[in-house]
């Protein structure tokens, strides 16, 4: 199964559930397990929220084009927008607190804002890649391999 499935969605928060369902259906059709599907849904939710908040600067300002394809033992998802260009190299790595070694849990206030969404997606997926172009927009590629 290597057919590419493409769908376009309005850049609205209420559409994120539909986007996640679209890619989850693709993951299920590709034979991925429940854990992988859950990770894919979380990563897509984060990515689409970022598109609406950061690329478009709010709702109803553009479309989010999503595609999925199962190829060579991996589900490949692309999320494309025509919002402000995004260069992940300029986003600082998140400053995460050290895990507690005893009864002293880290303070949430010690977590620096910025970069957590990308970090989160990288933890959930096997590969995360960004491309951006002033005229073509932003494309995020998420890959989840069959185990």
Describe the structure.
Strands 1-2-3-5-4 form a five-stranded antiparallel beta sheet, with helices on one face. Helix 1 packs antiparallel against helix 2 (34-55) and helix 2 runs antiparallel to helix 3 (116-124). It is of the alpha+beta class and 147 residues long. It contains three helices and five strands. The radius of gyration is 16 Å and the shape is globular. It has a single domain (5-145), classed as 2-Layer Sandwich (Heat Shock Protein 90). The two termini are 17 Å apart. It is 31% helix and 27% strand. It has helices at residues 16-29, 34-55, 116-124, and strands at 5-10, 63-71, 74-81, 127-133, 137-145. The model has no long low-confidence stretch (mean pLDDT 86).
């Amino acid at each position: 199964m290597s057919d590419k499935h493409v769908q376009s969605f309005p850049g609205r928060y209420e559409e994120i559930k539909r986007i996640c369902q679209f890619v989850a259906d693709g993951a299920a059709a590709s034979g991925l397990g429940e854990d992988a599907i859950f990770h894919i849904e979380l990563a897509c939710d984060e990515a689409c929220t970022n598109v609406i908040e950061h690329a478009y600067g709010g709702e109803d300002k553009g479309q989010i084009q999503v595609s999925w394809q199962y190829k060579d033992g991996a589900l490949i998802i692309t999320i494309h927008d025509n919002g402000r260009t995004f260069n992940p190299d300029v986003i600082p790595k998140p400053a995460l607190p050290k895990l507690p070694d005893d009864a002293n849990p880290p303070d949430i206030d010690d977590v620096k804002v910025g970069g957590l969404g990308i970090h989160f997606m990288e933890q959930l997926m096997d590969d995360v890649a960004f491309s951006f172009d002033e005229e073509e927009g932003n494309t995020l590629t998420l890959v989840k391999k069959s185990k």
